[in-house]
Amino acid sequence: MIHFLMTIQQSAFCQWVHSSPSLLAYPTILLLHVFGMGMVVSVCAGVDLRILGFAPAVPIAPMAKFIRFVWIGFWMNAVTGTILVAADAVNKLTNLDFYIKMLLVLLAVICTRTIEKRILRDPSASDGALPANAKVLAFASLILWLGVMTSGRLLAYVGPGSGA
Amino acid sequence: MTIMNAAHIHFLLNHIPTVGYGLAFAVFLAGFIWKHEYLTRVGLVLIFLVALASIPTYLSGSAAMQMLESHPEISQDIIQAHEDAVIPAWAFMMFSGFAAWMALWQFRITRRLPMWNLATVALFGIIAFGLMARAAELGGEIRHPEIVQGKIVTDIQHGPTQWVVALVANNTWVRPASEVLHFAGMSLLFTVVLLVDLRMLGMAKSWSFASLYQLLPLGILGFGVNWVTGMVFFLATPDDFMHNSTLFWKIGLILLGGLNALYFVLFDEPWKVEANVDAPAGLKAIALSAIVFWVVVAYLGMMLPFLGHAF
């Protein structure tokens, strides 16, 4: 298994990402990953806090228009995240924190997708009274995305090859 | 930012948090005591502006401090005592700036300035002014040993600078925790930037500015979190940032972003944007500039380890 990971990590592309002094290599890919995460967390935080009761004057339904940023950010990060993991495959794929992050991403995506379908894109829910479980969903989404952000940021600090 | 430039900038700016803050606070206090609403608001605006300007004042001072390290005739203890006196003074100044912005924000909704908020500004302001006067005195003594009376009585080993250095050095969780909070703060700021400014640009037009107005303090909260966590990074490893022109540009854009945050609580134009109304071109330009400023701030922050004199 380690050999397989080594093979990925030592491919020409991964070597370029990992070791090239070019700003287009590791810095730009990480930058896109940070911007993607920022888009996801910013929009989800806005939606979730609103459903939880913050800024009650803001109508909920138009927030559906902003959810596209969540999915743009998500796919940006699926791509850049795959590259970042491949370039450091041996360390990242043996890091428990990475698997915790992936689990949290999965749960957070399910949560946000549910909020989008059941609340934002359902006129009866977003204009009138919120469904009973809306606040539970919003709270879960907020905590899960914060968890994704935290476990992602901590990948630089915990586990093998982190310097910690 | 070269070190030479930074010292010059510090000598240019260092009267703003001292003399400037004194004047701003005096205007505010006069309005507060005589219950003159307009004067109070002018004072609040000035306090916010001085608090903003104190950010480059502090950072350039830190660089100027390093510049003097190679001068044996200058007491390094006085310089350190100056910085240690500045940090708490500056913290109260920033708190008063945040409180001033909140008072201006609330005025737009209730048409009156909330008493508890004004009292907070007054309290933080008095403390900030007193502490900053002492810090400025120590700053003056760096180059004017003739005015030093007796020995400087400051325990620089246990000052705030060393406290932060030790906190980060002795606790491995502090830096990652600060990084996580810095990301969270940025995200909160961007919640406001994306929702409010993109609405002004024409997205989700069924939102009126009045309804979105409640979101604005989230952005200031995010900025506050990032000022605190940003200071943890800076104080723990100042050398990483001191010679880095990337930080210079980042701070410059933060100041522009701060002016933008002031615009949205001060001016009437945004309020004319009712539901399903297109924002005027000028307002669109201001909204677009906010997005550009903060995206570039995030870009420069992220690229700090890679651009300029990278660390």
How many individual helices of chain B?
12
The largest chain-to-chain contact, stated as pair and per-chain residue counts, equals: A-B, 35 and 33 residues
Q: Please tally the helical runs of chain A, counting DSSP H or I stretches of 4 or more residues.
A: 8
**How many extended strands of chain B?**
0
Radius of gyration of chain B: 20 Å
Element string of chain B (H = helix, E = strand): HHHHHHHHHHHH
What is the molecular shape of chain B?
A: globular
Poorly predicted ranges of chain A:
none
Biggest pleated-sheet summary of chain B: none
How many angstroms separate the termini of chain A? Answer: 24 Å
Indicate how many domains the architecture of chain B comprises: 2
* Number of strand segments of chain A: 0
Question: Distance between the terminal alpha carbons of chain B, to the nearest Å?
Answer: 15 Å
The SS-based structural class of chain A is mainly alpha
Question: Which blocks of ≥5 consecutive residues of chain B have pLDDT under 50?
Answer: none
What fraction of the residues of chain A are assigned to beta strands by DSSP? under 5%
Describe the main β-sheet of chain A briefly.
Answer: none
